[in-house]
Amino acid sequence: MKNSRNARRYAEALYDVAKDHAHEDQIERELLTVRQVFSAPSDLVDFLQDPKQWMNRARIIKSTFMTFSSELVKLLLIMVEDHAEQDVPGMVDHYTYLINEKRGVGVGKVYSVTYLTPHQLEDIEAHFAKGFGYERLALQNEIDESVIGGFKVVINNRVYDVSLKAKLEDVKRKFVPLYKR
Amino acid sequence: MEIRAEEISALIKKQIQYYQKDTEIKDIGTVIETGDGIAQIYGLNNVLSGELVEFETGTMGLVQSLEEDRVGVVILGSHLSIREGDEVTRTGRIMEVPVGKSLVGRVVNPLGQPIDGKGDIKTRKTRPIEREAPGVMARKSIHEPLQTGLKAIDALVPIGRGQRELIIGDRQTGKTTVAVDTILNQKDQNMYCIYVAIGQKDSTVRATVETFRRHGALEYTIVVNAGASAPAPLQYLAPYAGVAMGEEFMYNGEHALVVYDDLSKQAAAYRELSLLLKRPPGREAFPGDVFYLHSRLLERAAKLNDDLGGGSMTALPFVETQAGDISAYIPTNVISITDGQIFLQSDLFFSGVRPAINPGLSVSRVGGSAQTKAMKKVAGTLRLDLASYRELESFAQFGSDLDKATLQKLNRGKRTIEVLKQGLHKPITMEKQVMIIYALIHGQLDEIPIEDILRFEDEFYDYLDAAYPQVLRDIRESGELAAEEDMKEAITTFQQQFSRSY
Fold it and tell me: Do B334 and B343 form a contact (C-beta atoms < 8 A)?
């Protein structure tokens, strides 16, 4: 969450540039690799932050990401120069968010006690896409035993909660008068 | 807590019935930081400023600041159980308090919940605490008097229904007493009173409530209390809760009086809140919108036009000054917002002038048109007389050779000051005030020794009640002076039987 604002600025800029060159899909694929490399604990980030390697930073980035799009490499150079190495994963996340918003795809998670069958998952995706304001949903199923029963869909800070836990919490809350909370 | 089985089954039945409607897509956020009654929340993308949010524990929060990736929320209630990572949901509601007549006679907190142990408040009506003030066309000029029952106020700085009159002074100058006496005098005046206590000791508030109860004033009074131990958000909200309760009466064509005791504490609570929300501090570390804080509150006091029912809401805000400094930030702000101020001075208070109103610095910009004709007639020159007496008084200290006219003026001035004194919780009806001031300005008290004036006054009122009730009734019902010979007769006959102390 720290400096997520900075990460967003970089992502927005990259997305704009990529769109101008119609490269956004290619960059999206490349970014997945970049995210892996930069995610903590990352040897690359440690290396870049090492004062002894001060002069070599640009060279390292250039040689590591030789085969990547030039826009992406340039962005990484800028970020390294700004000492924003740690913001790279945040930048990637926001880029993915931006591109998915453009495509009308809602990426999120569905929590349940046991794994949902692919059929169930499809059903959920089809049923809630409109409610969340997307054309299509791409949900990832996660196991969460505290749900107790039912399921809970979370997409971009919006939630549809039909879990048993939420019902119980609701009942519990209704027993406590407002001024005692 | 005891829960009965049928309660549970009723609740579950309701849940089943509304199962489908109950769940909808909600906006959520995550607590990233909490402390000092403030929580910073990530998410809650579409939340409105001023909206209520609900924490996992059921505690409510009020959205105060919206930033790009976080919102600042003030926690209303217990902030001890809120932890980092907790989920927060939007409620889609803005803050409201219960209003209506069932609150009368109760002591509530700023959320409208009873704290007097007399059980639930049965009202379905609520009002938003933040609301736009009535506009230009909804209003009407102030024309009805609000009788405070204090001679010094009703004669010198009259207050009209719908006016906003600031009461300002140092600590321990009797500000609260002025308000309490005013509320006590509203009995049978078709007026609902709301006493908002902000940041006061709970024991003080308890004593005030007890005073109301003893004098039968609790029957038409609501007390809103945000004590010194209440968190800053509640102290900040208390006046708005009070004004919302007053509006309910005003828009129903009735009259309300709201006392804010005191706004400097509210400003301090708001300062605390703003600093914790990381808003930039300005003068005296108050945030930039501290003027708006008070102006939007006081602007809601109004006299409505006849189409809207002709109701009114009078506001008596209090401001505490430090060592008589009325040029500090909050006092100047509130002075400029209100329609006049009553200035209480500690040196007057300690020299025995109680209420310690300084007639030179106190003004009422609109109350004059609300004064009854009788009072206007007798009190017309009182202010000037007092001013010239003050001037002469300092002058007369230099020598004893004074001409007769000066001596007479000094004499009259001393008696004027004596007449304007008044005991604690002893409001005086308008007609009696008129009678005593009438006697004063016609020189009928000039022969009475100064130390006898108070006794004279008391006995005079009893005498009038017993021997001249029709004179009092005439003044009360017509609002004009009674026949001159009757009034003179009443005064002279009493004077003859009054026994001096030496």
Answer: no
Chain A residues touching residue B75 (CB < 8 angstroms): none
Please list every residue in chain A whose beta carbon sits closer than 8 Å to the beta carbon of residue B68. Answer: 5
Q: Would you say B15 is a known binding-site residue? A: no
Count the Cβ atoms, other than its own, within 10 Å of residue A42: 17
Residue A118, domain extent: 106-180
B174 is in an annotated binding site: yes
The verdict on B192 and B70 lying in the same domain is no
B365 is catalytic: yes
Reported ipTM: the value is: 0.80
- Quote the pLDDT of residue A1: 47
Output DSSP code: residue B48. P
Q: Pick from A158, A167, A172: which is nearest to B28 by CB?
A: A158
Summarised one tens digit per residue, pLDDT across range B434-479 is 999 999 999 999 999 999 999 999 999 999 999 999 999 999 999 9
The token pair at B124 is 């379905």
The pLDDT, as a whole number, for residue B1 is 52
CATH number at residue B68: 2.40.30.20
| pTM of the entire predicted model | 0.87
Give the span between the Cα atoms of A61 and A48, in whole angstroms.
Answer: 9
Q: Which of B131, B139, B365, B383 is catalytic?
A: B365
Residue B419, domain CATH: 1.20.150.20
Per-residue 3-state assignment (H helix, E strand, C coil) for B196-256: EEECCCHHHHHHHHHHHHHCCHHHHEEEEEECCCCCHHHHHHHHHHHHHHHHHHHHCCCEE
Cα angle B169, B171, B175 (rounded to 5 degrees) comes to: 55
How far does chain B reach from its first CA to its final CA, in angstroms? 70
